[in-house]
Amino acid sequence: GNSVTQMEGPVTLSEEAFLTINCTYTATGYPSLFWYVQYPGEGLQLLLKATKADDKGSNKGFEATYRKETTSFHLEKGSVQVSDSAVYFCALIGNYGGATNKLIFGTGTLLAVQP
Amino acid sequence: GAVVSQHPSWVICKSGTSVKIECRSLDFQATTMFWYRQFPKQSLMLMATSNEGSKATYEQGVEKDKFLINHASLTLSTLTVTSAHPEDSSFYICSAPGGGSRTDTQYFGPGTRLTVL
């Protein structure tokens, strides 16, 4: 079945450091891929998404490229800020008929950015 | 943008009582809503899919009689934790897919923290 694997945290970085959070997936067909962010005390928010191979999703300085050949969707940011401290979830929705709209989440990665 | 609300945001109850959590889509209609449980180490587990006008679809291992789901209208789904026990203490989150061109995007409620004493 479909699954998402993302790197375990916590990830602790200094402000302005480069961020990579790895995410790989297993899916039938051509899933849509997402990164959600959960700030302390808040609900999950969509950060970015990509719906087909080689698409790049971007938002708030974060980027992720849908790599079908490596089944990956790694999240990157060139210079993190303290305000980026949150839990980041990689997720997919299968697009193979049956269970559309059913999000499959990775375990989440806690990012802590220190000033 | 699309907004999903949950009520209450937190609840403390005694063991053996039932607790109802509401999930509402505020500015769009949702024939489907999803209920998740978030565990302490951040993983999010899909519990069930709530379907307006029909029975909910439960994920494997989730007790239907324990977690009652009712999708009463196109903007409201409720999750009732029946005869709650301390092991049911958790963070419960609902979501709904956006309408129109946003059907592949889920909008999440802020979550409900349940503590069972």
What does this molecule look like?
The complex is a heterodimer of chains A (115) and B (117). With 115 residues, chain A is mostly beta strands. Chain A is 0% helix and 50% strand. Chain A contains no helices and twelve strands. Chain A has strands at 3-6, 11-14, 19-21, 23-26, 32-38, 44-50, 56-59, 62-65, 75-77, 86-93, 103-105, 109-114. The model of chain A has no long low-confidence stretch (mean pLDDT 91). With 117 residues, chain B is mainly beta. In chain B, a hairpin with an 8-residue loop joins β9 (90-97) and β10. The mean pLDDT of chain B is 90. The interface between A and B is medium-sized, with 23 and 22 residues.
Number of strands of chain A: 12
Average of per-residue pLDDT values of chain A: 91
Sheet with the most strands, sense and barrel status of chain A:
6 strands, mixed
Fraction of residues in β-strands of chain B: over 45%
What is the average per-residue confidence, as pLDDT of chain B, rounded to a whole number? 90
Question: What percentage of residues of chain A falls in helices of 4 or more residues?
Answer: under 10%
Poorly predicted spans of chain B: none
Number of H/I helices of chain B: 0
Distance, first to last CA of chain B: 37 Å
DSSP strand count of chain B: 11
In the predicted model, the low-confidence regions of chain A spanning at least 5 consecutive residues are none
What share of residues are in beta strands of chain A?
over 45%
The coarse overall form of chain B would be: globular
Structural class of chain A: mainly beta
Structural Rg of chain A: 14 Å
Helix content of chain B: under 10%
